[in-house]
Specification:
- The chain has 13 helices and two strands.
- By secondary structure, it is mainly α.
- Strands 1-2 form a two-stranded antiparallel sheet.
- The longest helix is centred in the first third of the chain and has 39 residues.
- It starts with 17 loop residues before the first helix and ends with a helix.
């Protein structure tokens, strides 16, 4: 007869054995190492994204007070803006142009810095300077250099006979966008070059020796050996550059403030103007969500293209 049938209390469960306690501890032990990183990601990434999405669905006053649920009205107001198509197109041109030129130039710099020549260490240290410097400070210096009255760029080109009169490089939207893209490439080159340099240095020398024995020249060896083996480094460099350039704010704001009007704005400076100039906080949050989605879409498309190339290789 069971203990319940006799009215006696059920026997207590046996205390956990030391073996069970050790096994439970092993299961929880990784949380001690992963816990701080998980909390940091939740606090710095997940929570801001959640707040951004929530704000984009909220009616917010010009003073920052929440006035209730707005549904998709902020998004409808955003897509009704006349300047939005130009901003989106300009952002794609900005990202694709800067990242492509940066990658191409960094490939050449990585090969140069991997070769032996007098002063190589000095050149490597000099390349770090634009990366170590403040992006805002670099943009302001370039704005001064491109000034039509006292800028050194105009003075140099006039002394060389290239220009007859000073040019206001930042007055016209097309010229200003090209100038800002040049500054963005200048700032992005150090990191990208060193990432690709690390990839080049990780390629075993025996691979090149075997290729030379088979009769491969420098060009063929670079295309058949270096580039394929650099693919992991290229993926990392391209993704980080896409994210950084997409969200680049200091260069554009310091050099043109997106002007004249919205003529040189990208999505990052445009959402800032929506929030602080137009006092449309909810619409700015909707623009931030769209910007976040565009970054994810570009990165996912790039990863899919790379994966497909690896499968067909």
């Amino acid at each position: 007869m069971s203990a319940a049938g006799t009215g006696q209390p059920a026997p207590a469960a046996p205390p956990p054995t030391p073996h069970r306690r050790r096994r439970s501890w092993r299961v929880l032990e990784p949380l001690l190492w992963l816990g701080p990183a998980i909390l940091l990601i939740l606090a710095m990434v997940v929570w801001p994204v959640f707040e951004m999405a929530r704000t984009s669905l909220t009616r917010v006053s010009s003073t920052g007070l929440s006035q209730g649920f707005a549904g998709l009205r902020n998004y409808s107001d955003l897509f009704a803006e006349d300047d939005l198509p130009g901003v989106l197109l300009r952002t794609l041109v900005w990202v694709i142009g800067v990242v492509t030129v940066t990658i191409l130039l960094s490939l050449g710099l990585a090969q140069l810095l991997n070769s032996r020549f007098p002063g190589r260490r000095l050149v490597r240290w000099a390349l770090i300077v634009p990366w170590a410097s403040s992006v805002l400070m670099t943009a302001l210096i370039w704005r001064w250099m491109l000034n039509d009255f006292y800028g050194v760029v105009n003075r140099l080109l006039m002394d060389l006979g290239v220009l007859d009169a000073p040019v206001n490089w930042l007055a016209r939207p097309g010229q200003a966008l090209v100038a800002m893209m040049g500054v963005a490439v200048f700032v992005s080159l150090p990191f990208t070059s060193f990432v690709l340099l690390a990839g080049v240095q990780s390629i075993p020398a025996e691979v090149y020796e075997a290729a030379r024995v088979d009769g491969a020249g420098p060009v063929r060896g670079y295309l058949a050996i270096t580039l394929p083996l650099l693919r992991p480094s290229l993926v990392v460099a391209a993704i980080i550059n896409v994210i950084n350039v997409f969200n680049s704010f200091p260069i554009i704001w310091a050099m043109t403030r997106g002007g004249p009007g919205f003529a040189t704005d990208t999505t990052t400076t445009y959402l800032y103007k929506l929030a602080f100039d137009n006092q449309s906080v909810g619409e700015s949050a909707a623009m931030a969500v769209v910007n976040f989605g565009l970054v994810l879409a570009v990165v996912l498309v790039y990863l899919r293209v790379v994966r497909r190339q690896e499968d067909t290789a």
